[in-house]
Every structure is written in C-alpha cells, then in structure tokens.
Write a structure and sequence with these properties.
Strand content: 15-25%
Structural class: alpha/beta
Radius of gyration: 37 Å
Distance between the termini: 64 Å
Number of helices: 28
Helix content: 40-55%
Largest sheet: 4 strands, antiparallel
Shape: globular
Length: 887
C-alpha cells in the first residue's frame, strides 16, 4: 500500500512479527552476509564462539551474539568485506551425556551398543536434535555467513586437529605420562584444570596418630580426607621445623594397612597447617605427588574409576569414598589412633558438567607442554599484536598464564576426536597423520588405536584458523586471518581465549585475533546470577516473542558496559519495545511530511546563518551524535552508543525537532520542504547509526524512507563538520530551558490547561533577545502562551519570576492563579510535610527503633526523611515566590 505521493504507507502500529521474518529471509536470499576473499576492500573477520551442539539460545548467547552482530553490521556499512563465520562445537562430555540419557530410557548403556554403534547413534542425534540454536541465531538476526558454517567434528577440522596433535608430538610439546589429573567419577573421564569449578563445602579436619615403628611414640597428622590414608607412602614435615627435626629419617607403621613408611623433610609442607606434619598420598593429591617425585616415594592407588576403594584398601574394599571415610575413622577410633575431628569447610573441585566432586587421580594420560606455548601467547599480548578490551583483562590473562600447568588433553569418552596414537604388542607408540599399517619402531602389524578422545577445547582452540581451511593456505585463510576481533565473556578467558592464543601464535602466527573484546555475564536486575533454583532465569526466545528481537537486543546492549556484568529485567525489554514504537511513529510522521519525492535527499540543504534555528540545531546535534556514536562503537562500547542514540532519537529528534517543525510543515512552501528534508535526513542517519543494534525496525523504516533495497551494506553516515554549529546549540538550549521552566511552573502551580498567560522575557544580552524575538512563535506554541514580549526590564504588575539559564522570565499573575487559594494550598502542604518530618525525626531518634528494627526498615525511614526534606524545600520556594505577588 502506498501514499498518494507514491511512498509506502507504514501500518499504524509496529508489529515485529510481520517485519523480522521477511527481512531475515530477504537478507539470506540475497546473500548479503557472504564474504568474498577476492574483494578489493579492507577486511574484517570474526569467528563465532561455537555454541554446543546440545545447546539452545540462552540470555548469555543473546548478548554475545548481539555484540558480535553489531560489529559485523557496523563494518559492512563502513565498506569492509566482512566474514563472520558460524559453527558448532561437538561438546564431548555434554553430548555423550545427552545420548547416554536417551539410551538409559531404553534400558541400555553405551557398552551395550559398542563404540562404533554408539558413535553412529550420536551422529543420528546430532542430525535430528542437535543444532537447534542455529535457527535461533537466525531469529536473533545474526548476520553470519551461513555458507561457511563449520562443525568441530567435520572432515576439515578433524584433519587440522590431527595435524596439530602430531606436530606437537614431533616437537616434543605433547607427551604421554603418568601424572595426577582431575578425574570425574561420574563422567569417568579426565578433566583439565579449567574444567574444575571450586566451591566451598562443609568439611572436616581429622587428627590422626601414626605410631613410630620403633615404638617410641606417635607422630600426629591432620587430613581432610581420612580414607586416603590407606594409600599413604610417607609422612612429611618441613625441614626447618624444630619439632620434627629428630624424627626425619625414621619410619612409622601405617595403621590399618600395617605398611612401614618413612618420615621425610620437604619444603612444600605448610608448618601452620594442622600439626605441621602431613600424610603423603602420591596417587591422590597433586602436592603429594610432587613430594613423592622429589623424595623417590612409591604411589599406591586405592580407588577405582568410580571412586570406590579397590583391593589396595584391604578390608575397606568395595566402599565408596564417603563410606570409606566413615569406616576408616571408626576403625582408627577403635585403635585409639583417632584424636579428634573438627568441622572445617574447604574448597573442593567439582566437575563443570555434572557437579560431581572431582577426584585427584594418578593416571596415564596425554599432556600438552604448555609453558613454551604460553610464553609465545603472552608475548603476543605484551607486544600489542593482540589487545584486550577493556585492557584490565590483560592482568587476568597474564595471572593465569604465568601459573599454567601442562594440559591434560585425553578424555575417556567415545564421542570426539580419537587420539591418533597406536600401540603394538611390545608397547611402542606410533603417532601419525594417517592411520599406520605397522609399528613405526619395530614394524609389528598388530596395532591398537588409543581408546581415548581429545579434550573438546583442543579442537575449539584451533577454531580461528582451522575453520578457514588450515593446514592448507586457502584463500579464506589468506584473506581473513588473523581475525579482527574475538567477542566473549570474561568467564571463558581461560577455557578458550588462552587455548586459541597458544595454538594460533604457535601454528599460524602472529596471532589468531587482533582484539579480544570482553563483556560480562547477564544477571538479573538485582545483580544475582541467573539460576533455575533462584527462579530468575530469563528466556530470550520468550522475550523476542513478546516484545520483538530489536527490543531484546537493544535492552541487552544498552546495559553492556565494557567488561562489566549486564543487569536484565523484562521491564527494560518492554522499555526498548517502546523505543522501537517511538521510532516507528517518528517514521510515519516524517513519511507523511516530506511530500512526493521518490526518496529522502541523502544530503539536505547545507545550513547557513539564514537557516531556521531548528534546522541548524538539529543538524549540529546530529553530527555530534554521529561522531560520538561512531567513537563509542570503535571503542568497543556499544552500550554508550545505544544510550546516545536513545537520547537523541527519543528526545531531540522525535520530541523537540518534530514539535518545532510542525508549524513550518503545516505552512507549506520552501521552508516546509527544508524542514521536512532536514527531519528526513536526521531520521535516515539515526536509523543507520542504530542499525547495528536494532537491524529489523531500522531496515524497514529506512527502506520506506529512502527506497533503497537495504541499509545493511551501508553506507555509514559520512562526516559533515560543516554542520557543527555551537551558536545554534546554545540558542536552542536557551529556548528549551525556557519552555521546560514554564511547563514546570504550570505543573507545580496547577495552572489550567486552557489558560494562556503572557510572557515577558528579560534577555541576558542582545543576541539572546534576538533569539527570543525570532522564536517567539515556537515558544508561544510549545509553552501554551498567549504572547511573548522581550523587554529590557520586568513589568510593573504582579508577576511570578522564573529563571531559565541566563534569561529572566516574568508571568503576570492576574487571571493566571487564584493567589489566595494557591497560598492556602501551599500552606496546607507545608503543614502536612512539617508533621510528617517531626514524626520521622522522632522515630529515628528512638534508640529502640534504630537498634531493633531490621536494617532495611531503618534505611527506608531515613530515605523517606530525606524525601520529605526535599519536598519541603521545593514547596517553601514556591511559597516565597508567591508571598508578595498580588499585594
């Protein structure tokens, strides 16, 4: 449907459901997001942090993707060839758990199927149920290049994984060894340090007596895990601890096991912990393992993979670790060797997937030697080849990288990249890029491949370059690597950012990305972490259904201050929906005001001193907003850009500029054309500036306004320094302050809407006087006045005096107010406020209330007293204003 002038007519109400789907399909059909590596344009590239194949869009994804989409759209509009590459992660543990749960419903386990059939079952699940988040990404407006979608288990990425594994092995940076690792007794797999989440739990400190072998007494040791004493191979003391100097070198008889173990001196012992003597259990504690390596102690593993006591535990065999703890303490108590047990909460590691307490376990695993890789990554950041935004997160990065341990990369799973290592009957290891036919060392043809798979983060650590075709030097890799920006939350710096930097700097230098833009976590309006148990989880899909995608995106970005957590409440999304409606109504007004031209002029008439103040002011404010918004985007502060655009579009453009333009538009002629053209240009620029954050409503309005097919390919609004007009902005500020002061006076004194008083303005100087004369009609209309007079002094009749910036305003009171009634009303209000203040002061002066009432109640009482004081000051000022009037 079109207007008589030939322009499309917008519906009266903005309905996101009629705009978002068709707009998204039009973009995809036109291929506007597909990147061309041969294009003769500057490049901008990002690799989307791959969501898990098991996942669905949550509020954190919505923030992360909106941030990235804004950057992608911004750079397309500015003439860059943009590649935003999407994909998914196979999520080894999570996906295997999902499929195993499905099997459990059938009364089966993966072992009933066997490895090959189970992996086929996972692929079937992935095809049918996995990846639903990709459709939700389209719903969110993600402008990714869908033609380049990747998956961490696809053929190309699997080849890259094997190449990296073999290369690291050949370089001596990847090895197989027996070390203490983090073990999940439920998932039955090793975990890396960053996959272990520590939390404080109730615990205990048990004090035990170990008899000296020579019968001369006891040595007292403290432990938080009494059951592990079954695997003790020494007692350690600090070499400088005088209490135990004479005991070093002696032996004790380990209770319940009857094993002789030595007393050794080692500097790792904390003399302040417990008794200063500690039991050493090398197979079940990292520090103890390191002591054992220095002291040449054996390691005794007492637990099975399921954390059940094995045969090394003697009579306790078959008990799980918690039952064994109880039984061991009871047995020691019977022998008189349990001195005491005290409560002692302590931090315990939990599996990040299933929340099971992690077990430190001595295990034969594959490890990456991270120190050389970490040093390269840190140097890349120190040299500025990669920088963090905000820069404070570099400290977080360095703090962890400087303490990094070798990375356990093998996982005891069936779903994932199987480790490319084979073993012959003689135990020789063959690591190869292609499946070998014989042992590389002895030539034996009977080979068995390692049963384990690689840590999911191993493959995702290659993401910025493996997705571009590495190890081949493809056109995409040459054109779009290093990637320009990585956008992610601070919670994943260690999980993923560090891994990518280590691998990228080593295999595809100089760096995988030039900027790491960090945002915070989305929390509820009170700053609490969202959790189902708290009942405060916000579903982004529901919010998009209710308020539209643009509203959700704008609400998220507006609160996303760089690197800080993002508070979110549904009413804020509702407010953003209202902003979208405001834009829609503004678009309808402008479309109805600009006549029959086929499109709005890209460049309106250049402002001159003879141009209307409203036009010069609007163009000046528009240019200032364009410059500030662009700087905010470039400074990785989209929240500031969103706030600036909201303020300009809602207040300055949709309210002030429109109201000032209405009489000019209604009058017709050349001035009306100039007013309409200026409004249309300002709206078009505003829509383009907002497009990175609110792509759907801005696209629909811009198409209707300009007739272009899309604005998602630009251009970005050009710089127009000639529009900057400080004098116009100062003049408009004087006019706005005057109108606001007059409106406030009417509201506070309840001046009837129909009343039209006369206004006398005493200007600060001749320039201001000329301004008020020229804008008298606008002032009269917007402040609902009968007339405006600019005089050198105040009138001789009774008036109310107002101050508006540098100007003095006088409203003759005759016929405006019933002064006696107004004074009486103010006196009654003052009396009521005085009574309330007296009561509030008395309440707060009462020690019984202040000391016994809840702190929140006392704080609220103090807040109310402050509010009463503010109200009193305001009413007193109004009363003084009227005290001499009319007498």
């Amino acid at each position: 449907m079109t207007t008589p002038q030939g322009r499309p007519e917008l519906p009266k109400t903005y309905d996101p459901t009629t705009v978002e789907g068709p707009t998204s399909r039009r973009w995809l059909d036109a291929g506007v997001f597909e990147a061309d590596p041969a294009a003769d344009r500057p490049r901008f590239s990002m690799a989307l942090p791959p969501p898990n194949v098991t996942g669905s869009l949550h509020i954190g994804h919505a923030l992360d993707h909106t941030y990235q989409d804004g950057l992608a759209r911004l750079h397309r509009m500015r003439g860059f060839e943009v590649l935003w590459l999407p994909g998914m992660d196979h999520a080894g543990i999570a996906t295997q758990n999902v499929v195993e749960r499905e099997l459990a419903k059938e009364g089966k386990t993966r072992f009933d199927l066997g490895r090959e059939a189970f992996v086929e079952r996972v692929w079937e699940w992935k095809a049918e149920s996995g990846g639903r988040i990709l459709g939700q990404m389209q719903r969110l407006g993600d402008s990714v290049d869908w033609s380049r979608e990747r998956f961490t288990m696809d053929e190309g990425l699997s080849r890259a994984v094997r190449e990296v594994f073999v290369s690291l092995y050949e370089q001596g940076l990847l090895y197989r060894g027996r070390r203490i690792i983090n073990w999940c007794p439920r998932c039955l797999t090793a975990l890396s340090d960053i996959e272990v989440e520590h939390e404080e739990v109730p615990g205990e400190l048990t004090l035990l007596r170990y008899p000296l072998a020579d019968g001369s007494g006891f040595i007292r040791v403290a432990t938080s895990r009494a059951e592990t004493m079954l695997g003790d191979t020494a007692v350690a003391v600090h070499p400088d601890d005088p209490r135990y100097r004479d005991l070093v070198g002696k032996t004790v008889r380990l209770p319940l096991v009857d094993r002789l173990i030595p007393i050794v001196a080692d500097a790792a012992v904390d003399r302040e912990f417990g008794t200063g003597a500690v039991k050493v259990t090398p197979a079940h504690d990292l520090v103890d393992w390191e002591i054992a390596q220095r002291q040449d102690l054996p390691a005794v593993d007492i637990l099975t993979e399921e954390a059940v006591v094995n045969a090394e535990g003697g009579r306790f065999e078959g008990l799980d670790r918690y039952a064994a703890r109880r039984e061991v303490k009871a047995a020691l108590a019977e022998l008189g060797l349990l001195e005491r047990v005290t409560e002692a909460p302590h931090s315990v590691g939990h599996c990040y997937r299933c929340r099971t307490e992690v077990e430190p376990r001595l295990s034969l695993q594959w490890f990456v030697a991270t120190r050389p890789l970490a040093d390269k990554a840190m140097e890349t950041v120190r040299s500025g080849q990669t920088r963090f935004e905000p820069v404070r997160y570099e400290k977080t990065f360095f703090g962890w990288m400087e303490q990094i341990r070798d990375w356990c990369v093998s996982r005891q799973l069936w779903w994932g990249h199987r480790i490319p290592a084979w073993y012959c009957p003689d135990g020789h290891v063959t690591v190869a890029r292609q499946d070998p036919a014989a042992c590389a060392e002895c030539g034996a043809g009977e080979l068995a491949q390692d049963e384990d798979v690689l840590d999911t983060w191993f493959s995702s650590g290659l993401w910025p370059f493996s997705t571009l075709g590495w190890p081949d030097q493809t056109d995409d890799l040459k054109a779009f690597y290093p990637t320009s920006v990585l956008v992610t939350g601070y919670d994943i710096i260690f999980f993923w950012v560090a891994r990518m930097l280590m691998f990228g700097c080593h295999f595809q230098p100089p760096t995988p990305f030039e900027v790491v833009a960090i945002h915070g976590m989305v929390r509820d309006a009170q700053g609490k972490k969202m959790s189902k148990s708290f009942g405060n989880v916000i579903d982004p899909i529901e919010l998009m259904d209710r308020y539209g995608t643009d509203a959700l995106r704008f609400a998220l970005i507006r609160g996303a201050n760089p690197g800080s957590d993002v508070p979110m409440a549904e009413e804020w999304v509702e407010g953003a929906r209202n902003f979208a409606n405001k834009l829609w109504n503004l678009g309808r007004f402008v479309l109805g005001s600009i006549g029959g031209a086929e499109s709005a002029p890209l460049n309106p008439p250049q402002p001159s001193p003879s141009s209307a103040l409203a036009d010069r002011w609007l163009l000046s404010r528009l240019e200032a907003t364009r410059e500030a918004v662009t700087a905010a985007y470039d400074g990785f502060d989209p929240a500031e850009a969103a706030r600036l655009l909201h303020g300009f579009a809602w207040s300055e453009l949709a309210d002030w500029a429109v109201e000032l333009a209405k009489p000019r538009l209604g009058a017709g002629g050349e001035d009306a054309e100039r007013a309409g053209a200026t409004l249309a240009y300002a709206l078009e620029v505003t829509l383009r500036l907002l497009h990175p954050v609110m792509p759907f409503v801005t696209e629909e309005l811009a198409r209707a306004l300009t007739g272009v097919e899309t604005i998602t390919l630009g251009p970005w609004p050009a710089e127009r320094p000639g529009d900057v007009d400080p004098r116009a902005e100062t003049g408009m500020a004087d006019l706005q302050e005057t109108i606001v002061a007059l409106r406030r006076f009417r509201a506070e004194h309840r001046v009837p809407t129909a009343s039209r008083p006369r206004l006398v303005v005493v200007a600060a100087d001749e320039d201001q006087a000329a301004l008020f004369r020229a804008e008298a009609d606008s002032l009269r209309r917007l402040a609902r006045l009968e007339a405006v007079a600019v005089e050198p002094a105040a009138p001789a009749v009774p008036t109310a005096k107002l101050l508006a910036g540098r100007a003095e305003l006088y409203l003759p009171l005759e016929g405006l107010l019933d002064l006696d009634e107004e004074r009486a009303r103010l006196d009654r209000e003052l009396a009521a406020l005085d009574v309330e203040r007296t009561r509030a002061e008395a309440k707060l002066a009462n020690p019984a209330f202040v000391e016994k009432a809840p702190a929140s109640v006392v704080a609220k009482a103090r807040e109310r007293l402050a509010e009463v004081d503010q109200a009193l000051a305001k009413v007193r000022a109004q009363r003084v204003e009227l005290s001499g009037a009319g007498r």
